[in-house]
Design goal:
This protein is of the alpha/beta class. It is built from eleven helices and ten strands. Strands 5-4-3-6-7-8 form a six-stranded parallel beta sheet, with helices on both faces. A two-stranded antiparallel ribbon has the order 1-2. It starts with 6 loop residues before the first strand and ends with a strand. This is Alcohol dehydrogenase-like C-terminal domain-containing protein.
Length: about 260
């Protein structure tokens, strides 16, 4: 590659020797990822097998989302097959939930409901004109009581809230799947009923890392482009590093979904 070629770096690594690595699951390897190496550097030395070329139509701002989208692509593979007729619920409208909504809409899915208690986050999705149903968690609970058979074939849980996970389990259709995509606190617990899991043949799984899905995420960015991955639409804001306190406050207030720091 020429010196001016745009590239990005997959921080996921494995030892190459353990059972997980040799079984094609390096994301389960106990070796820590090097996601903090060179984080403020102007250049780094990296193994060539973890360097990915960025397509010409993809900006460096957009490729910052490759880590998130590689996570989603792995979740897509684990949850699959996801058929076009499925009734899908996304709980949590942060950056992960929003990107899930964008990816589903891009793939042609229309029978999607997104739920969050933060109206600002729902308004971000409303302005994206996906046509998806956008409701609060209270409305979701109300619909459960007033609308018979208001069940979902797939719930993508991206809030990390255990009470929302419990609600999501109760909303699953027979044979339904719960995909947990957001990290919850290690100190919280979620109540479930094994009898219901057994009788309704429910599937519950987590998605923590990407597994050979980084390159696919880059191709997905090239396909989605500005229609879905525009920073203004996604409420992603760039801050100078010296304004890191303002950036943290913006995240806490929910006025932005993600912050990106600039060294300029």
């Amino acid at each position: 590659m020429l010196g001016s070629t745009k590239v990005t770096y997959n921080c996921l690594r494995g030892c190459g020797c353990c059972n997980f690595c040799r079984s094609g699951k390096p994301h389960f390897c106990s070796m820590e990822n090097d996601s903090t190496i060179g984080i403020w550097a102007t250049f780094i030395v990296a193994p060539v097998n973890r360097i990915h070329k960025v397509p010409e139509n993809v900006s460096l701002q957009q490729v910052i989302l490759a880590k998130h989208l590689s996570h989603l692509v792995n979740g897509w593979d684990i949850a699959g097959p996801i058929t076009i007729s499925m009734n899908i619920l996304i709980t949590g409208a942060g950056i992960l939930g929003t990107l899930w909504a964008c990816m589903l809409h891009h793939q042609g899915y229309r029978n999607v409901t997104i739920s969050d208690d933060n109206q600002k986050k729902l308004n971000v999705l409303r302005k994206m004109n996906t046509g998806f149903s956008l409701i609060t968690w209270d409305k979701l609970k109300e619909n459960q009581k007033t609308t018979p058979n208001n069940y979902f074939d797939l719930v993508i849980e991206s809030s990390g809230d255990p009470s929302v996970m419990e609600l999501a389990l109760s909303l699953l259709q027979k044979g339904g799947k719960l995909c947990c995509c957001q990290m919850a606190s290690p100190n919280v617990e979620c109540c479930m009923h094994p009898f219901e899991v057994f009788m309704r043949e429910l599937s519950i799984f987590g998605v923590h890392e990407n597994c050979f899905s980084f390159q696919m995420a880059i191709k997905l960015i090239g396909a989605m482009e500005n229609r879905y991955l525009n920073y203004d639409s996604l409420k992603i804001k760039i801050f100078p590093l010296k304004q890191y306190q303002e950036a943290v406050e913006a995240i806490k207030r929910g006025t932005v979904s993600k912050v990106v720091f600039s060294l300029d």
